[in-house]
Amino acid sequence: MEALVVRRLGDPTLPPGGDDSPFEAISGEQPVPELSSPTSVRVRVAATSLNFANFLQVQGKYQEQPPLPFVPGSDYAGVVDAVGPGVRKFRPGDRVCSLASVGSFAELIVAEEKGLFVVPDGCDLVAAGALPVAFGTSHLALVHRAQLKSGQVLLVLGAAGGVGVSAVQIGKVSGAIVIAVARGIEKLHYLKSIGADHVIDSSKENVIESAKTFLKARGLKGVDVLYDPVGGKLTQDSLKLLNWGAHILLIGFASGDVPVIRANVALVKNWTIHGLYWGSYLIHRPAVLIDSLNELLSWLSKGLITAKISHTYRLPESIVHLVEQMKTLMVPVTDRVHSYGIGVQSGFGWF
């Protein structure tokens, strides 16, 4: 079986095959994973995405670190290859998607039946392979945690990144008025095309003044939900826009600067501050995560949301391209067109 193997922790942007690179060349000698239980399912991977978490994991900086050596990879989609004797929901040939702590940058992966989701008719497997992490994060944050409602104002920082793009779309499906902050005219045009009501180029405009002008023109008081995968000064400035009773969703700190939100201000303003580590729902609230992903797959099949795939590569030739994409993940999220869902295609797999 072919797979990408991480033998050592290190800088994922170094040329592969060197003494310091964490990656070896694509290995065709990985053993085919065996069914691990009566209810396990082996999936032939059709598509898997490159996420910021993968970048951190290869460096050894992610919240959870697998033992070496390991095959990286998280969300994926594919076709059922084999099932255990206790599996009742799936059979070979079924189209499924899921997420894993590791292992999807490979031809085959094994998962438990309860952790797999049916990919509905009308859903492209590539899009389904880019869905769970980015869209799952935004859906749980906006729909489950902040309970975003129609007519509320949603401010999305880092809106051109993977989770940002998904937040804009989910905001519009929920009926919100969406203000999207990004950098560069091309990215702003894209955000408008997926429904953003107002876009702000943070490299050229004063974010606060631009947002205030838009809100005043619409007769709106302020922002009800702040979606923040960036952190730093942009977070601190954005707090000036928040309404009484607003929700603050802390998704990540791509700027490298963890913001400080003063508790006394949150008290006076009746703000609710949510930390959102999506992966932990698998442990603490799996039913909520399952319901969330099923709703997202339904939306995808109906065309209510779309997964933008920025690059695709074949697996045997992908290692050099993967290193190049890892370099883009070193850039702050506001400078990236799309940080999640970068596909690497092969005859059997994407990552």
From TrEMBL:
Full protein name: Enoyl reductase (ER) domain-containing protein
Positions of the UniProt region annotated as Disordered: 9-37
InterPro entries noted in UniProt: ADH-like_C, ADH-like_N, ER, GroES-like_sf, NAD(P)-bd_dom_sf, Quin_OxRdtase/zeta-crystal_CS, Zn-ADH-like_protein
Signal peptide: none
Entry's Gene Ontology molecular function annotations: oxidoreductase activity; zinc ion binding
CDD domains: QOR1
Residue intervals of the Enoyl reductase (ER) domain: 18-331
Pfam families: ADH_N, ADH_zinc_N
Cross-referenced PANTHER family: QUINONE OXIDOREDUCTASE-LIKE PROTEIN 2, SHORT-CHAIN DEHYDROGENASE/REDUCTASE
PROSITE patterns linked: QOR_ZETA_CRYSTAL
Assembly, per entry: Homodimer.
